[in-house]
Design goal:
Blueprint (H helix, E strand, L loop, with lengths): L5 E8 L3 E4 H5 L6 H8 L3 E4 L6 H16 L8 E5 L10 H9 L5 E5 L5 H14 L6 E7 L10 H4 L5 E8 L4 E11 L7 E2 L11 H5 L6 E2 L1 H22 L9 E4 L4 H9 L12 H6 L6 H11 L8 E8 L3 E10 L2
Parallel strand pairs: 4-5, 4-6, 11-12
Antiparallel strand pairs: 1-7, 1-8, 2-3, 6-7, 8-13, 9-10, 12-13
The structure holds oxa(dethia)-CoA.
The site of oxa(dethia)-CoA has 21 residues, from helix 2, helix 6, helix 8 and strand 12.
Length: about 325
């Protein structure tokens, strides 16, 4: 059997500043009670004004490289999943390549919104397994506070900033990437988008006046898609591997909303509630591409995952995009 790629190390970074529901009560007409009952979010992190997506991604990457015992020059490719890049170009991956002094690495951004970490995982897995590259550094980093309108209560309570990183290689202990299943449906792109600042609607005084540089979302519609897509992607992933639902030891869904997490969790009846990861949503809110990466890093650092346990990661986001990945912890 050809060897499968593994996540041999992880890292994450959360900015220091905490924005609580009580803080938001002072900014928009909302309440801690509404936010907690509708979303499960209690607080989120905000990057400092001079703390960019590249900076947070760099910090998460340094931790992952440290954990892997690798020097930056040993990395062949840097992938950065983000929908809040520092610039449209140059890519955030290039900015991080420079900060890390990863002088032998190619660099590429991935735009798959909240599913970006899983899209990156499949790219990294394929490139490592087919022998094109030895080591890929996958980073997810988001400064969502830069595109959120803090006068719009329907979105500003939901999102937070942060970063996650993973090193993918063939050799070493870690999380074997058994399979990744991805999907998309561009016909629903209108449900979550940033209208201005691209080539269709370039920045102008008019777009700024109309607040088109802020994220816009049809939350209720997305909710239904999120549950359905994460369930079907997860089950498709198991089917590829001819695995049963009851073989899954941990479910790690995208941390957008506690009600979505619980609804997806219910589709895996055998799983005790404490094995459906939900701690991130309360502490960090929706960190888009980073959320499953931060979750994996936290669970892994807490030593909660035992050898040979199976983890099912699943995500959903703008595009629409979605995906699932089945990982197995391997101690060697
Ligand atoms: O990251 C991947 C993509 N994102 C998602 O998957 C997000 C999916 N959607 C959601 O998480 C939920 O739909 C939301 C949390 C965004 C909204 O929850 P909801 O239960 O669908 O609420 P709603 O949008 O139907 O709003 C219910 C009411 C509305 O008032 P009326 O029209 O019923 O009088 C809103 O105006 O709640 C109101 N509302 C608020 N009230 C207090 C909306 N936001 C707030 C708020 N505080 N922050």
């Amino acid at each position: 059997m050809p060897k499968k790629a593994k996540i041999i190390a992880t890292g994450s970074y959360l900015p220091k500043k905490v924005l609580t529901n009580a803080d938001l009560e002072k900014m928009v007409q909302t309440s801690d009670e509404w936010i907690v009952t509708r979303t499960g979010i209690r607080e989120r992190r905000l990057a400092a004004a001079d703390e960019y997506t590249s900076e947070m991604g760099f910090k998460a990457a340094e931790k992952a490289l440290d954990a892997a015992g690798l020097k930056p020059e040993e990395i062949d490719l840097i992938l950065v999943a983000t929908l809040t890049p520092d610039y449209i170009f140059p890519s955030t991956a290039c900015l991080i390549q420079d900060k890390l002094k990863a002088k032998n690495a190619a660099a590429l951004d991935i735009q798959a919104a909240c599913s970006g970490y899983l899209y990156g995982l499949l790219l990294a897995k394929s490139l490592v397994e087919n022998g094109s590259l030895r080591r890929v550094l996958l980073i997810a980093s988001e400064k969502l506070s830069s595109i959120v309108n803090y006068q719009d209560r329907s979105t500003c309570v939901l999102f937070g900033d942060g970063a996650a990183a993973a090193v993918i290689a063939l050799q070493g202990p870690g999380f074997e990437i058994e399979a990744v299943c991805l999907g998309s449906d561009g016909s629903c792109g209108e449900l979550l988008k940033l209208p201005a600042g691209g080539s269709r609607c370039p920045a102008s005084l008019e777009t700024v006046k109309n607040q088109q540089h802020y994220l816009q979302m049809a939350g209720g519609e997305l909710f239904k898609h999120a549950v359905r897509r994460m369930e079907t992607a997860s089950k498709a992933c198991l089917k590829i591997l001819k695995m049963q639902e009851k073989e899954v030891d941990w479910l790690i869904p995208h941390q957008a909303n506690l009600r979505i997490i619980e609804a997806v969790g219910k589709r895996f009846e055998h799983l005790p509630q404490e094995r459906v990861y939900k701690e991130g949503v309360a502490k960090y809110g929706n960190t888009s591409a980073c959320s499953v990466g931060i979750a994996l890093d936290e669970l892994s650092c807490q030593g909660k995952i035992q050898n040979q346990e199976h983890l099912l990661l699943t995500a959903f986001g703008a595009g629409l995009t979605w995906g699932a990945a089945l990982l197995t912890k391997k101690s060697k």
